[in-house]
Amino acid sequence: MATGTMRWYRKGLTSILSGSVDYLTSVIKVALVSGSYSTSASQDGDDFFNHVRPYEVGRQSGTATGYTAGGYTLANKSIGTSTGGIARLINSADPSWASSYIRARGCVVWASTTAASATSPLLGWANFNATVESSNGTFTLDLDATNGILYVNAS
Questions:
Q1: How do the domains of the chain map onto residue ranges?
Q2: Which residue from 82, 96, 84 is spatially nearest to 132, judged by alpha carbons?
């Protein structure tokens, strides 16, 4: 099971707060990336999915059986708050890819707002801190049930 602390891309939070991306009605996806993509603060300036697409699992080595290009589409989305003043974007089901052969080092959350990845905004990213693999098994991304996928601490 893959885990990592989700972080906002610089323009991801702006996209949500300005309303240019509506979390509840937009197609939001989680894509897995290889170790060649630096999921770190240095990538914070990436704006659109086309910056990440060359590093998506299966694009470099050609092997990612069971993985759907573009990633997992979030289907059970909601927005919530906690008593601690945390506004959070929630998905009630963890993304998973069954019967898969996948090697991933991180993930990105993005809004598939158009057919062109050059205009589909990146929202957030996580580094797994190690390569996580599935070998003819289920690759599952454990989303934070407490703070949600991405959150803002308003306190």
A1: 7-153
A2: 96
